[in-house]
Amino acid sequence: MDEELEQALTGTVRETLLRLDPDKAPEQLLEDGWDEISAEEPGRAWAVLFETAGQLVSSAPLLDLVRPGPDVDFGPRPVLPLDGLPAPESGELLVRGVALGSQEPLRYVVVTAGAECFVVEAAVLSSTSVAGIDPTSAPRLVTGSVALDAARRVVAPGFRDLVRRCGAHYLVGLADRAAALVQQHAEKRHQFGRSIATWQTVQHRLADAHVEIVAARALLDSAWLDARPLITDAAIAQAARAAATTIDHAQQIFGAIGFTAEHPLPAIVRRWQLHAALLGPDLDSAVGRAVLADPDLEATRVRL
Amino acid sequence: MNSATFDHDVDAYRAALGRWLADRRTTLAELLDAHGPDLESEVAAHRDLLRTLCDAGWTRWGWPVSVGGLGGDERHRAALYDELATAGWPLPEAFVLLETMAPVLRTIAPELAQEHLVPYLQGEEMWGQGFSEPEAGSDLAAVRTRGVVDGDVVVLDGQKVWTTLGHLADHAMVLCRTSQEERPHRGLTMLWVDLRSPGCDVRPIEAGNGRNEFAEMFFDGVRVPLSGVIGEVGRGWQVAMYLLQFERAMYAWLRQAALHRILRAGVRRAQGQPEPLPEAVSALGRAYVSLNALRSRSQSTVQRLAAGEDLGPEASIDKILLSRAEKDCHDALRLLDTARFAFGGGPEDSALRNTWAYSRVTSIFGGAVEVQRSLVAERVLGLPVEARHG
């Protein structure tokens, strides 16, 4: 995607997310041609969408746009598993995960289990709104079991990783927003007669955050080109690292003001924690186990 | 001799090199067995490797024809390091010095490149980098080594330290002060010095791992011809800044290729053993993430260098990522089998201990990570100049 097109797309996404009620945004983007845009260059398109959403701390249920295949209509909402779900056995699919966004009744959900992907009628599952750490994301706990012949199996082997990469881009966008806010603050805040942005420790924290964000973007770019799950897992771990480092430094540099209800940082912290929980608690170990199980350990494929 | 044309086709270069390496596994095995554990014999064996690669043409790709290359750019050199590492070949330290110093010669002193590049690629000469001094490390502009222009020579007096493999070098790139200016980074000049000249005295420094990793160089009235001035008298700082972006950026690519090879070998040793401790598994995952983040970032940096872009402070990001990847990888390998790391007696074990020890230095040379962070803060993020007091 050339730079001009990417900027135009970013602008459209921003404007849509700022102007519309979050629940209306996915449908509007669909009407504006999202399917065609994302089909042409999926990596850049999804990156722009979710990173922009993260920068705006948007609660729009944009995962509704991520569909397991062209013959699955817009509507089913991905359920993000809370634990790794086993592949279905004995004709039954077990579901335990979270769907984000909107209090409107769900009609269909998309569930991944192992390498399999299913579209399931929401009415056969239990769906409970939960508040948790970030009620503004409107999370719903979705649980239950479904007979396999009551679920629609969709062949979409990369779907789970695609959804996770989108979540990782969102975290990068959140981190970016936190970094921008805290840099602004540091430049304006004066103590001991000078801007705290002139202090070396503050500068180094901001530099470290920037390096982590740059690294996360680079590795996510690679993950779109190199479809191996190990690379996606590594990219997600790096995105999580970028968010954790940046937000941790932001909390420290903002000082007490960053802990007040009227400040934008606490909302970012809550949103980060929700997404971190959904991506998984120990991403480094998951990557480590995958590395030990990999017979070749081929480096990330690159184009020079 | 490789006669195919890969000028605009890095993929074809890569594929052809991959096939050539695959056909020479016995050469590799002989090479790896050929030398003892000491650094000097390793460098000697690597000279043979360099000659083999140069005679086949592979290392001449990535350098302009005008200076003895076959064409191509940084991407060809990046592909070379990747393919060597993937095939399990070592990456000689000579490549590090090549990537640090040769771009300066290519761009700023092409006559010197014409004279010295191909002999270097053939392993016939070695180079050293004379920047740091006992009182000028992070503060490079504080160098005191003096150069006095006297007719058609520059007379050099002073001392350099931490020159990698300096005691094996034939020539050195030396940063000296040729005039006193109000701002210390002015008045500097970069010289190309023949270390066999009268007045040069180079002494190895034994590192904590028992190897002569670096050296100190003493200059006492060394007469350097004016043809050895790189760029112009008084423009040494600009030459140094041009060099440092390659030292930071191309070295990051080269090193990530080597780290993939080292990590792969270590993981293969661990596979088939009982499951490692949870801490080791987590450290391994962390290392893989750090290393591939570096690789992904470095790939785009290489492309920018190949396009002739001046990276400036952006190269500091690559250096910071490299420092972390280097330590994370070596710590993971250490944790995968701590008993073997501490007590193993085979050549692989002592090799890992050496590279682990050197991994601690990556965050120090080429500009300590503290300096790199300050560069990112001021020049990339645009933060105000750091307060100098307190």
What this model shows, in words?
- The complex is a heterodimer of chains A (304) and B (390).
- By secondary structure, chain A is α+β, with helices and mostly antiparallel strands.
- Chain A has helices spanning 3-19, 25-31, 34-40, 42-55, 159-188, 200-225, 229-254, 265-279, 283-292, and strands spanning 77-78, 80-81, 92-100, 108-113, 116-121, 126-129, 139-147, 152-154, 190-191, 194-195.
- In chain A, the strands form 3 sheets. In chain A, strands 1-4-5-8 form a 4-stranded mixed beta sheet, covered by helices on one side. A 4-stranded antiparallel beta sheet of chain A has the order 2-3-7-6, with no helix packed on it.
- In chain A, helix 5 (159-188) runs antiparallel to helix 8.
- The longest helix of chain A is centred in the middle third of the chain and has 30 residues, at 159-188.
- In chain A, 49% of the residues are buried.
- By secondary structure, chain B is an alpha+beta fold.
- In chain B, the strands form 2 sheets. A 4-stranded mixed beta sheet of chain B has the order 1-4-5-8. In chain B, strands 2-3-7-6 form a 4-stranded antiparallel beta sheet, with no helix packed on it.
- The interface between A and B is large, with 50 and 55 residues.
